[in-house]
Design the sequence.
């Protein structure tokens, strides 16, 4: 990847963060602080964690010193969180402005839990955005339940809002895209393997966020990969896959295995030049123009969003899939 590609990711990240903050501003202070089972104690805690992760990673990656961890109690209300997030956006932009393309491959090492971890800079930067997508999805689920949905936070919607129709960069190298899709497969498998542990009732039980049920969310995840592959490869829109077409997790797993193979066959047909090429397709609001790699990045980001919804449901059923962070995938592979 190139620096301009990373900056695009962070422009999206800031846009999506503000959608969550604006939605959170519509709930009461009591709702913001109410305990929940989705992690980090409350909506207030989850927002703080998302901010703290970006702050901590940038302090580490850009050697800004040990400035201490941000804690929920550091912020009296949402206005205080918003002000600190605005400051972090300025820090993030300033740090990214110091980078040249060659810097993105440098290695950063740190000790954690008695082990030494090494991280490639571009992978760590992508992790921060992916991590934000995961926790924004959890926040969106909570906010939707409180009657204050932040709406669609897809990367493609950001591109529409920002008027970005193509990308001049040739920085989305095949190896980088391949790594992101290997992560996507790894995380999908963790969700599927955990979903096999829930009861048939839990699998189909209705919920207030995300495609109606755990089953619906899994089918939507699979369907998005299928639909985007056919659209990008053949320029055709397909009929949506329907939850009622899949009796259980085994049926979804079997269909997804076919789709995974087909998607990798498509990916392996692409060159780096293909990834940078501008493509067009018919969208809901007419013809869209995109750099191909933007669409592929959206597929992975979209997967992270809906896997977070699945993980929240599974955790509520007593079957957490564990940590789905990009950095965990890198450490295991």
Sequence:
């Amino acid at each position: 990847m190139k620096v301009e590609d990373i900056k695009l990711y962070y422009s999206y990240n800031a846009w999506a963060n503000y959608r969550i903050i604006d939605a959170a501003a519509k709930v009461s202070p009591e709702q913001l602080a109410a305990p929940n089972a989705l992690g980090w104690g409350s909506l207030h805690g989850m927002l703080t964690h998302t901010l703290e992760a970006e702050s901590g990673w940038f302090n580490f990656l850009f050697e800004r010193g040990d400035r201490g961890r941000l804690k929920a109690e550091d912020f009296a209300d949402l206005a205080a969180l918003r002000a600190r997030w605005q400051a972090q956006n300025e820090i993030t932009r300033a740090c990214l402005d110091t980078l040249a393309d060659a810097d993105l491959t440098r290695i950063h090492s740190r000790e954690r839990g008695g082990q030494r971890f090494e991280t490639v800079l571009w992978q760590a930067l992508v992790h921060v955005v992916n991590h934000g997508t995961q926790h924004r999805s959890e926040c969106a689920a909570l906010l939707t339940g409180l009657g204050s949905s932040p709406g669609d936070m897809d990367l493609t919607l950001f591109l529409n809002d920002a008027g970005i129709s193509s990308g001049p960069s040739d920085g989305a190298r095949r190896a980088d895209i391949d790594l992101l899709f290997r992560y996507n497969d790894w995380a999908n498998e963790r969700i599927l393997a955990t979903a096999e542990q829930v009861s048939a009732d839990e699998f189909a039980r209705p919920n207030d966020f995300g495609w109606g049920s755990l089953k619906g969310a899994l089918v939507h995840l699979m369907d998005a990969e299928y639909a985007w592959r056919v659209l990008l490869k053949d320029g055709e829109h397909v009929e949506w896959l329907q939850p009622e077409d899949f009796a259980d997790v085994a049926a979804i797993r079997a269909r997804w295995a076919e789709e995974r193979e087909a998607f990798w066959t498509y990916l392996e047909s692409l060159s780096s030049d293909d990834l940078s090429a501008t493509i067009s397709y018919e969208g809901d609001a007419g013809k869209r123009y995109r750099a191909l790699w933007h669409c592929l990045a959206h597929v992975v980001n979209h997967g992270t969003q809906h896997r977070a919804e699945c993980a929240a449901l599974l955790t509520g059923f007593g079957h957490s899939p564990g940590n789905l962070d990009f950095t965990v995938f890198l450490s295991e592979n």
User: Anything to note?
Assistant: Residues 121-145 form the longest helix (25 residues).
